[in-house]
Amino acid sequence: MSMTALTKEQIDFFETFGFIKFPQLFADRLDWILEQFADTFPQEDKAMVHDGSKRTCVVPFIDQKMSTLLDDPRILAIGSSLLGDDFNYMGSDGNYYTGDTGWHRDGFHKKHRHLKIAFYLDQLDGNSGALRVIPGSHRVHDQFGKDLTGTTGKSETFWQVAGADVPAYVLDVTPGDVLVFNHNTFHSSWNGNSNRRMFTINLCERYEEQDLQELRDYISSFDRFWLDRVFSETMRNTASPERMKHLEQVMANDGHLAALSAEKRLTMAEPSRG
Ligand SMILES: O=C(O)CCC(=O)C(=O)O
């Protein structure tokens, strides 16, 4: 499917509800994606072979065998339309999810918009672990967004409602679909099996000069994955000038990460699983 920009209606939908689904947007690359996905998970490192007991997470992910996804006109269209032409790539993760994922936001960004592009690689619905979102929950300045903070993750306590029964929109998926959501949007997954395959591409707005410390602080949180740089060598070394536009601000601001990660290696048994 070709797509060079989102329509005004798609942008309005995303801004209003905090998510949008693009059915079968990557159907033409699915075989390649499935192959690269499987190949990216380390086979020789026993600790990283998914055994279904807990989530397995590899970071960075597309950087290893799918860097070119970042050059795809469809990814560029999503980034440019929702974040501006100078958007930043903000890393990726590849996952085998196990069981439920409780309600959470991926961030609480008051100024700069961060979004996640999610590729689920199994057919899923509400009874088998499809992602659910609370429409409008990304609007952290609105009273609704504020009311959800601190309550949604503890729905039993606050509302006497099980996580799976919190009012939400279920994003059924067929492999080839692409889901995009604002990091501030509350999301979760229920009733899934122990082998749900999914990977992400994270993007954000370019930070203004006066907010660069905020960007550096965000980058610091990658230390839990034991990364020396946010992006892999392959991602950096194969970058065209167009791709570099989306890498350079993070590359210029991740110089402190290696030292932080070195500290984490001393205190953590393995890199974080999410
Ligand atoms: O599919 C899942 O279990 C949850 C996905 C998720 O929480 C995320 O992408 O941040």
Number of strands: 11
What's the pLDDT, averaged over the residues? Answer: 96
CATH architecture: Sandwich
- Estimate the global geometry from the Cα principal axes: globular
Count every helix, treating DSSP H or I runs of 4 or more residues as helices.
11
Beta fraction of the residues? 15-25%
Kindly describe this structure.
One of its GO terms (molecular function) is 2-oxoglutarate-dependent dioxygenase activity. It holds the Pfam family PhyH. This is Phytanoyl-CoA dioxygenase. InterPro entries: Phytyl_CoA_dOase-like (IPR008775). There is one protein chain. The chain is an alpha+beta fold. Helix content is 30%, strand content 17%. Strands 1, 2, 3, 4, 6, 9 and 11 form a 7-stranded antiparallel β-sheet that branches. It has a 4-stranded antiparallel β-sheet with strand order 5-10-7-8, with no helix packed on it. The site of 2-oxoglutaric acid has 10 residues, from strand 6, strand 10 and strand 11.
Any descriptors?
274 residues, alpha+beta, Jelly Rolls, seven-stranded antiparallel beta sheet, four-stranded antiparallel beta sheet, 11 helices, binds 2-oxoglutaric acid, Phytanoyl-CoA dioxygenase, 2-oxoglutarate-dependent dioxygenase activity, iron ion binding, Phytyl_CoA_dOase-like
